[in-house]
Specification:
single chain, 108 residues, alpha+beta, Arc Repressor Mutant, subunit A, 4 helices, 18% strand
Length: 108
Amino acid sequence: MSESLQVQLKKGVLEMCVLALLSGGDNYAYEIASRMAEAVGMGEGTVYPLMRRMQNEGLVTTYLVESPSGPPRKYYKLTKTGALALKSQIDDWKSFELSVRKILGEAA
């Protein structure tokens, strides 16, 4: 797969993946970025701006938790709006994936 296609696919599902991670429980941005880097190769430079945008859109809220090894950590929590957005995005993804699979099956 070309690098350009990989980048575009990752950008298209980044928000959905982050929302899915948060649906499993609150977490801080560095941990989310690490999990995204491990799973799909997306780095901190992409995740942090996304977290700010999702907060501005009301998909997540934040709160601080004291850390024994440094400054307090900002944790992100999925809001009801974020949970609804995740469900909608998953439905859209499944529909899109099915359509692509159908086209690819016809091409084979």
